[in-house]
Structures are given as structure tokens and as C-alpha cells.
Amino acid sequence: MKRIIETYGTALAGAAIILFFVLFAPRFASAPNLLNVLKDTSFLAILGLGFTLALIVSELDLSISEVASLSAVACGALVHSGVAPPLAVLAAIAIGLSAGAFNGFGVTRLRIPSLIMTLGTAAVAKGLSYMLTQGVAFVGRWPTEFTGLARGDLMGLPLLLLWMLIAAFAAWLLVGWTRTGAHMTATGEAVEAARLAGVPTARMKFLGLVLSGGLAGVTAVLLAANLSSAAPNMAGDYFLYAIASVLLGMTMFRPGHPNVIGTIYAALVLKVLGNGLVLMGAPYYWQDIILGLIIIASVAFSASVLKKVAFTV
């Protein structure tokens, strides 16, 4: 029973939160509101997946939101200058991948701690975003070919949810069912042991950071397509939520370890929590207070689980 509570207790608590708002928050259970919650979860989940893949190789990517904002304004600049939307989308994702590769190079070759490296990259990306826009967002008429990426649907399923499911399935498949994923996990859990066993640990760390940047680029494209705008700080509000979704996800399913399913579920719970509090008339600052408490509690829980595992071994 103790093992079940440690593994699924947080997930059950999340389900209880969802049920509470379904029963007591006005209009929460309405179809339009639930659809909006799921759509907003998509952005957070995809960005959180990138942070998850970096954390799996035991690295932090604190540049995800600024890289996403840079990718978005670059995409907006290209679209508004007449570049075909598919090329603008590819360019935005390429910028994210390049930022991830820059982080990976600094961490694996220059031996800069990922905390410092990604903070520096975040500052550079933020400066480039303002340089491209001069502080003014790209707004106005956007091609429907571009906005349809986030606003369209496929056989009744909103494309935003489809992109989230594709990203989640690809990440789950990579981590859980491929040799590369096994090497990434080994690198994050015991880097020296993995290196002695022949795992290319530097390459795995590089890959984790590149994938994190690439998913930031994907998030940027979907945000710009959904909002029909691109601003220098448009992804800033998702930064702490993305980190919280990963840390909260580490308290369930595989306690103490970053995992794809936990991140997706935690992202949904966080968005439900924020939406439900708003509908119940709670002051906006309660979201920040609860978010901070969730981050602290998640780290404390994960640390205690890992310490217990270490002593057991």
C-alpha cells in the first residue's frame, strides 16, 4: 500500500482536484471551457516535454521560454515578410534546435554547467527577440495556412491536441523503447557508470538539450498560430509552469525520476487548477502562490524518494 501511494498518490490527488472543479466550479465542466483547458495544456505539455528530456540526462534547460519566444518572433518576421508558412515553421524549429545545440556544445565541450549555460542562452535569445521586433509584436492578418496549424481539427480532434499527443508519443517511444533512450536514462541516473559501460554520455547530454530546444521551437509555432501574433516575451508565462509540470510529474508513476507521462498529466492538472481557481473567483495571485508551493513540495518529495532508493541499494 505504501508503494502504491508513493507511485500513484499524486496522480490520485490530481484526479481529485479535477473532480472538485467539475462539481463546484461554475461552468468548468462546459464543453467550451474543457476544450480551452485542453488546448492550453498542449502548449505547456510540449514545452514541458523538452525540459523533461533535458532533465532525463541530468541537465537543466532554463532557456526554453526565451528560445520559444525568439522562435516565435522569427517565424512572425518571416511570415510577415512574405515567406511561405511551411518555410517559416521550419525556420522557427531550426532556431530552437540551434539554441539547443548551442547549449549542448557549451555543456559537453566547454564544460559549462547547464544552469549557467542555459541562463546565458536565455539572455541572448531575449535580446535577439527584442532586436527583431524592436519591442513591438507581429500582429495583423496571418495566412490561414499558418493559423490552421493550431486552430484546425482533424476528424473533430483539435490539431493542438493532436500535436501534443504526437510529441508525447514520440518522447515516450524514445525514452522507453529505444537504445538511445536507455542511454539517456543511464546518463542521467549514473553518468560515470554509464561512461565506463561504453555509453556516449556527452552525446546523450547534447541530444537531450537539442531536443529541448527543438520542442521549444514547436511550442513557439503553435503559440504564434493560435494567437495570430508573435511577441518577444510571449512564452514567458509558461516558464515556471513548464518546470512545475516536470517536477510534479516526477512525484508520480516513476517517483523521483523525470518521465513523459507524469509531465503530461501534471501539465493538465496545473492548467485545470489555474482555470478552476479563476472560475471560482480566486485572486490571480493565488495561482502563483500554489505554483511555488507545488514546485517546493515536488522537489522535496523527489529528493526523499531518491534518498530512500539510495539507502535501499
Mind explaining what this structure looks like?
The chain is mainly alpha-helical. Helices cover about 75% and strands about 0% of the residues. A two-stranded antiparallel sheet has the order 1-2. The protein is globular, with a radius of gyration of 19 Å.
Largest sheet: 2 strands, antiparallel
Strand order of the largest sheet: 1-2
Rg measurement, Å: 19 Å
Helical content band:
over 70%
Estimated share of beta-strand residues: under 5%
The outline comes out as globular
Helices and strands in order:
Blueprint: H1 2-24, H2 31-56, H3 64-80, H4 85-108, H5 114-133, H6 144-151, E1 153-154, E2 157-158, H7 159-177, H8 179-189, H9 191-196, H10 201-227, H11 239-249, H12 260-279, H13 285-312
Antiparallel strand pairs: 1-2
Helix pairs in contact: 1-12, 2-7, 2-10, 2-11, 2-12, 3-4, 3-5, 3-10, 4-5, 4-10, 6-10, 7-8, 8-10, 11-12, 11-13
